[in-house]
Amino acid sequence: MKTKEIRALSQNEMETKLIELKDKLFKQRMQKSLGQMDDPNKIRQTRRDMAKILTILSEMRSSDGKQAKKEKS
């Protein structure tokens, strides 16, 4: 996934996508251990997609916290 595509998603959609990617990664690791994996680079790409989503989620959460502090002041 591209970063622009991820940023277009809502926070709930990102969390759902993250769960899907975790499941996908599990299945890919199982395929690798059984010797059925065609392209081992798919595991790397899945992990990178998960990292992108986690990074954007943490950015959103930190910016929400900063805005809440500004509103209280």
Q: Low-confidence segments, ≥5 residues, pLDDT <50? A: none
CATH C-level: Mainly Alpha
Report how far the terminal alpha carbons are from each other: 38 Å
**What do the pLDDT scores average to?**
91
Structure explained in plain terms:
- The chain is mainly alpha-helical and 73 residues long.
- It has a single domain, classed as Helix Hairpins (Orthogonal Bundle), CATH 1.10.287.
- 84% of the residues lie in helices and 0% in strands.
- It has 3 helices and no strands.
- Helix 2 runs antiparallel to helix 3 (41-72).
- The chain is elongated and about 60 Å long.
Task: Break the fold down into its secondary structure elements and pairings.
Layout: H1 3-7, H2 11-34, H3 41-72
Quick tags:
3 helices; single chain; 73 residues; elongated; Helix Hairpins; mainly alpha
Outline of the structure:
This protein has helices spanning 3-7, 11-34, 41-72.
